[in-house]
Amino acid sequence: MSALFEPFEVIPAIDMQDGDVVQLVQGERGTGTQYGDPVVAANQWVEAGAETLHLVDLDGAFEGERMNATAVDAILESVDIPVQLGGGIRTIDDATSLLDRGVDRIILGTAAVENPTLVAELADSYPNRVVVSLDAADGEVVVSGWTESTGVDPAVAAARFADYGACGILFTDIDVEGTLEGIQSSVTARVVDAVDIPVIASGGVASIDDVQSLYTTGAAAVVVGTALYENKFTLTDAMGAVENN
């Protein structure tokens, strides 16, 4: 396995919509709770000990065009830890522009599913900087801002993208995303078992026990959003719990 995340990381999510931090429930528009300025959030997470930041341009995910570029640029200028970004990255030009501007890792979702050779081309030019996002609902990969089902099993898709050169898989369980009702670790475990590259787990984390459960699946990291913003636990406590395992 790559040293992309060693040791296991708890990564704060900064999902952006209309210039604000927003956390959606099960990926559905109109369900978001706003949590303020993305740049303020980024700096707060860095101060809390984050080792990586996970940025998502939700407008880009839904519309296919990145709408929060100003906030992303401001975050890149204000933090000194790795930043990974997804949402609305559809072309080679989109990807290379972000990578050359300072984004450490890009996350390809819809574009990867629709054009897998895009992953191979970018991975060849930018080794260890291309992550593929697989969002699953009802056991199938979904795309276009979680609105279209592909009928593809996420474990099968993960193995395919590992072969194309992805340095990691971001797996989001949409069935529990943003609900604060807990995770479905068996779903993540299937994806982890299908590949030899790091899997970043996401979706449904409501407690430190959930973080520990995802750690035991063999996932390399977990992205946490709503639970941190709603103060269900602190980033420091979550990282400490895993380090003590």
TrEMBL record:
Compartment(s) where it occurs, according to its Swiss-Prot or TrEMBL record: Cytoplasm
GO molecular-function terms, A-Z: 1-(5-phosphoribosyl)-5-[(5-phosphoribosylamino)methylideneamino]imidazole-4-carboxamide isomerase activity; oxidoreductase activity, acting on the CH-CH group of donors
Top-level taxon of the source organism: Archaea
Coiled coil (UniProt feature): none
Biological process, per Gene Ontology: 'de novo' pyrimidine nucleobase biosynthetic process; L-histidine biosynthetic process; L-tryptophan biosynthetic process
Keywords: Amino-acid biosynthesis, Cytoplasm, Histidine biosynthesis, Isomerase
Pathway listed: Amino-acid biosynthesis; L-histidine biosynthesis; L-histidine from 5-phospho-alpha-D-ribose 1-diphosphate: step 4/9
Protein name: 1-(5-phosphoribosyl)-5-[(5-phosphoribosylamino)methylideneamino] imidazole-4-carboxamide isomerase
Species in which this protein is naturally found: Haloquadratum walsbyi J07HQW2
